Fold:
Amino acid sequence: MRILGCFLLIIISAANVQAATVTFADYTFETYIISDSPPSGRLYEFWEGRHWVLRVREGQEYSIIVRNPMPVRVAVALTVDGLNTIDGRHTKPADGRKWIIEPFQAITIGGWQTGADGSRKFFFTRPDKSYAQWKENRDQRSYTKNLGVIGIAYFWSSQELYQALHPPQPFAERESAPMKQERRLSAQKRNKSGDDQAGTGMGRKVYHPVKKVHFDFDTGMYSNRDVLKIFYRFDRNAITPQPFINERKRQQQEEFAPEMPQN
Structure:
């Protein structure tokens, strides 16, 4: 694990399950939620009106698995209930602190990062017990309007992607027309490759070391409409929130998510 700057890298974890997806820049990005409470395993979505929605249980611990389908590193802004999972802030997608995922890999985020070596578990809870409600009470700012949604925004370097897709060649070669056509088609194929609401609380402490790394990006999901969203609720009639609140940056930014008191 390594870090420089304001991005974080954690140990890679992957699983072969279906996932919530969004297509952006000809890549399919996917994320899914797993239950860490018995019975453990993938939480499946149900179609409810306009969105696929997770049906969750109160007190259920969970983790978020985020995949990188690209041949280059990506920086991922991950929010739960509109709050960044690293520092607990409300930001635009591009402004938030980000997790780094290596090419074609995945990471597992299981809680709010409260320090350089630990986090506090995600668990589904009633709105008045959520981390967003605690922060709203503490900061006297509106945070709970985004309860019940997980937002995942990807960013990367266009130069790194170009270099990955166009590696240098040791020798110049002449190609026949059929060979050129076959190579072109192959590249194209490769590149296409209330009682109703629920919130997330800040649960038990777990060991989760992170390090800062420097990462420059210039391409990605800058707009909310491009962001991969996963909605969750206890019942069917919850109000649909939106991730990432656009607001002015706080003058004193916190490096990690401030801890919510444990009962």
Q: What stands out?
A: Residues 1-6, 9-18 have pLDDT under 50 and may be disordered.
